[in-house]
Amino acid sequence: VWTAVDAYTISNLHPPSRPNSATLIHALKNSRDQGLPDIASYPVIGKFFALQCRALRVKHALELGTLGGYTSIWLASENPGLHVTTIEVNPHHRNVAQQNLEHAGVADRVDSRLGAGLDVLPRLGKEIAAGEKPRLGFAYIDADKNNNWNYLDQLIDMCEPGAVIFVDNIVAGGGLVDEAQLGDVMVSGAREVVEKVGKDGRVEGMVLQTVGEKSYDGILMVVVN
Ligand code: DHB
Ligand code: MG
Known about the structure:
- It is a single chain.
- By secondary structure, the protein is α/β, with parallel strands linked by helices.
- It has a domain at 2-158: 3-Layer(aba) Sandwich (Rossmann fold), CATH 3.40.50.
- Helices cover 43% and strands 21% of the residues.
- It has eight helices and seven strands.
- Strands 3-2-1-4-5-7-6 form a seven-stranded mixed beta sheet, with helices on both faces.
- Helix 7 (148-156) links the parallel strand 4 and strand 5.
- Helix 2 (21-33) packs antiparallel against helix 5 (91-103) and helix 3 crosses helix 4.
- The protein is globular.
- It starts with a helix and ends with a strand.
- 41% of the residues are buried.
């Protein structure tokens, strides 16, 4: 039923006739054909993030974990004035993403950087502090889960007040609250970021549980004070 509801709502609210529908499907197919793991975002979440950027009139968005560029294509193709910086540690993934971004016609507004998040973020932070890039209005953390908190902690100071940051894979099918899964890095990374956000006066946060074509999961939403 979850998948059927996603299919019904998307077919009405983002039908195949939309200008970016074919390129989004192409990005997923090209990523799969070139051996990338099938863990990209999906239409409901991609459009949710794109609409957040639109509602907040975001000028500069950041993504940690480009994979095949699927979410970056959503953000950029739905928001003509938006610039996206996206960071990917795997050179093959980054190459496939670059193909997909070019095919989607958004490569001129998506700055795709190769490297580990903890190496690239401080450089981006210096560019923002120097005024070479606008402060971030939106960020999406979907990379190595053990660094969820480290990424968020660094990002907060690169954001404008009111910026929204999302962290993926927080609920993990209920693993978040399963004692037996505390050793799983997805669960420990999720718990660390939830617990530290709750104690951090720079931000407010909440977790939205999601069901849909990617089964049962959830995203942490953080707003920068
Ligand atoms: C998985 C899903 C994700 O969204 C991700 O970022 C990493 C891994 C998974 O299902 O294994
Ligand atoms: Mg994810």
